[in-house]
Write a structure and sequence with these properties.
The radius of gyration is 31 Å and the shape is globular. The protein is about 25% helix and about 25% strand. The protein has an eleven-stranded mixed sheet with strand order 19-9-10-8-5-20-21-4-22-3-31, with helices on both faces. Strands 23-24-25-26-27 form a five-stranded mixed sheet. A four-stranded antiparallel sheet has the order 12-13-17-16. The longest helix is centred in the middle third of the chain and has 24 residues. The two termini are about 30 Å apart. A hairpin with a 2-residue loop joins strand 28 and strand 29. The chain is of the alpha/beta class and about 675 residues long.
């Protein structure tokens, strides 16, 4: 997976299933552009003697073996995976897409420190990301959004793979129809109902509906046969008391007297013979009955009828059904503080899905990753994994979670004298103790543009237009075009606008152009264009310098005072101060007339990462300080083995809102 690899096109097969749901703007996805990915971080906790439990022989040659964590639009990531060797190699795809409100995806942030530390709302999904999700809530756009991603995901599945979609009742019926179209009616396996909460009582607020306490989970196969492992749930107490009423006097074991007559009688092919004076069609052959009798597994009634002893302690339980009411959601008073996001799904739920649909060593993919529960479950259960999210905070949260888990697995292996083979009854051995983090299509730049667009619209009173393919909105009776903020206004931009207007000969409104910067020759172009112009006059606002509207886009980045030096064979990293203007501003907004005070800079820091041999491109984590509890603080001072010779040391600090700072030092 070269960082320099050029973009290319990826073909996507058409949906052939029925029925076919229609919506405004529906179109097939025959071809998509695959963008290159840039490695931004690498983590490795594997001891020298680590041997993976997986077979990596069919892994794409140019991609490092281990977990893969992608930051970007999942459409771009899916195309990238298809173009880079993963087509037909994923055993399980689980997705839990947004299906209710973008507000569900905003995380609450608490500064570090003792109990009672102030909490603030962390817009973990940046404005740009929230815009993307709000754009798709119009039903037609949402259906096209999901349709495209389902078509691409199917291409990644192995022939015996399974696709799992988690949703709520509000959208489930639409998504079921799209799944039938993409995968085919014959591919449907189950609709599981997960009873996620006991009560949802908003009747006091005037609600006129039944409380919604369940989600739906759809299971679809790529083809038949497919991977399936039957799981069992414990027998209910009522079943135990009703069925296992007999107690063996010699051992005290509870057992059930099971019928051994042949179901359906002789016409179903069951053997007929005399046993203990009774002639019947029996479940087992005469030889098998003799074996059971010799083993003491048969019991006889006073009439001579034969029954089989089935012991309670040998029962597997009840085969898992499509109603799951035994898994609690990650929320509520008893579980406060456990969830990373309000919509986070419990680990045991993903454990169940992964155990049913995969074997150890298989590859699991989640492209709406959130807090990384799917990747964490796959890592714990000895599967390989790929995760993706549009949100930078989700990437950071997942990276921390996986680093902690991998370190625990490596430490456990060291305690067992280096053995990473799982004993019987334990979790499978890990497939990887390392992962890389990637960025697809320079997504940070896209997010900055989207944030700025939304800020500009709010600041200038622009009404967004979602249906126009070129213009971004209107301001009064003027059409508005907001140029990408990664370059100033140029004559090329203006020529593109002029060509668009020529294609709309009946359009008579004036145009407002909004940009961040402007070239001198663009000003001359505008002046010449607007001379004696009766219609389509072009007005321009430059957001930094405009007398009326300029100067509002300001962002003070995270800053820190850090000292890095050698002390003999040790490298000493001493962080003396960290200032997060964004957090201070947020606190001041919420604290009213009193300016917020942060007594210890460590309260604003979520984690510290150190790379002792930074190459300027990929951040290799040599040390990570990530307190697991919110009341704990980062250390701030670190001693590491000093690298040999001259080296570049990089220190990455991530604040509680997810903003990053990387400082480098030559030592």
């Amino acid at each position: 997976m070269s960082n320099k690899k050029a973009t290319n096109n990826v073909t996507i097969a058409k949906a052939k299933g029925r029925p076919m749901l229609t919506w405004v703007g529906k179109k097939p996805l025959g071809r998509v552009t695959a963008y290159p990915a840039q490695t931004i971080e690498r983590f490795d906790a594997a001891p020298a003697e680590f041997h993976s439990a997986a077979d990596w022989s069919n892994w794409p040659r140019d991609i490092p073996q281990g977990g893969l964590l992608y930051h970007g639009d999942n459409k771009d990531v899916l195309a990238h995976l298809l173009a880079n060797g993963f087509r037909g190699k994923v055993k399980l795809i689980y997705i839990d897409p947004p299906f209710d409100s973008g507000a569900d995806y905003v995380r609450k942030v608490q500064l570090r420190g003792a109990k009672g530390t102030v909490k603030i709302d962390g817009e973990d999904y940046t404005l740009g990301e929230q815009i993307q999700y709000s754009d798709i809530w119009a039903n037609d756009s949402y259906l096209q959004f999901m349709y495209e991603r389902l078509l691409m995901a199917k291409e990644l599945l192995q022939n015996d793979g399974i696709f799992v979609l988690h949703c709520d009742p509000a959208r489930g019926h639409y998504l079921k129809c799209i799944l039938d179209e993409v995968f085919g009616l014959d591919a449907f396996i189950n609709q599981v109902v997960w009873k996620r909460s006991d009560a949802h009582s908003d009747a006091g607020q005037g609600a006129k509906h039944f409380g919604t306490v369940h989600d739906m989970i759809f299971f679809y196969a790529k083809s038949d046969p497919y991977q399936w492992n039957t799981l069992y749930t414990p027998l209910p107490e009522s079943t135990i008391n009703a069925w296992y009423r007999n107690i063996e006097s010699e051992t005290g074991r509870r057992f059930n007297k099971a019928d051994v007559t042949g179901p359906g009688g002789a016409v179903k092919g069951n053997p007929v013979y005399e046993w203990n004076g009774v002639t019947r069609a029996w479940r087992y052959s005469k030889e098998k009955m003799a074996e059971l009798d010799k083993a003491g597994r048969l019991i006889y009634s006073d009439s001579g009828m034969t029954y089989q002893k089935r012991y309670l302690d040998e029962s597997k339980g009840v085969p898992l059904q499509d109603w799951w009411d035994d898994i609690q959601m990650v929320r509520g008073i008893q579980r406060r503080g456990e969830a990373h996001y309000p919509t986070e799904k419990p680990l045991v739920l993903l454990d169940r899905v992964i155990e049913v649909c995969t074997e150890p060593g298989d590859l699991v993919l989640d492209v709406f990753m959130g807090s990384g529960t799917t990747a964490a479950s796959a890592q714990k259960l000895g599967r390989r994994w790929i995760g993706c999210d549009i949100n930078k905070g989700a990437i950071q949260t997942t990276a921390k979670r996986l680093q902690t888990l991998m370190r625990e697995q490596a430490a456990a292996a060291n305690k067992q004298q280096g053995s990473l083979l799982a004993d019987e009854g334990e979790s499978p051995a890990p497939c990887q103790l390392a992962f890389t983090t990637w960025r697809v299509n320079d997504y940070d730049l896209q997010i900055q543009h989207n944030e700025a667009v939304e800020l500009a619209c709010q600041h200038l009173g622009i009404t967004r237009t979602r249906t126009d393919s070129y213009f971004d909105g209107t301001q009064g009776n003027r059409l508005v075009k907001i140029l990408p903020f990664n370059h100033p206004l140029t004559p090329l931009d203006l020529e593109a606008l002029n060509n668009e207007l020529k294609a709309r000969p009946s359009e008579e409104r004036d145009i407002l152009l909004v940009s961040l910067g402007v070239q001198h020759d663009a000003r001359q172009w505008l002046e010449q264009y607007n001379k004696n112009r009766p219609v389509n006059k072009i007005h321009h606002i430059e957001l930094r310098t405009d007398r009326k509207f300029g100067g509002f886009i300001k962002h003070e980045p995270l800053s820190a005072e850090i000292d890095v030096k050698r002390d003999g064979d040790k490298l000493i990293v001493d962080i003396q101060d960290v200032i997060s203007p964004t957090i201070i501003q947020r606190l001041n907004m919420e604290s009213g007339v009193f300016r917020a005070q942060i007594d210890d800079w460590r309260a604003v820091v979520d984690c510290v990462l150190i790379d002792t041999a930074h190459d300027g491109a990929v951040f290799n984590v040599a040390l990570s300080d990530m307190p697991s509890r919110k009341q704990d603080l980062v250390q701030g001072r670190y001693a590491l083995p000093a690298p040999t010779g001259n080296a570049r040391v990089a220190v990455k600090i991530i604040d509680m809102l997810g903003e990053e700072l990387i400082a480098t030092f030559e030592v």
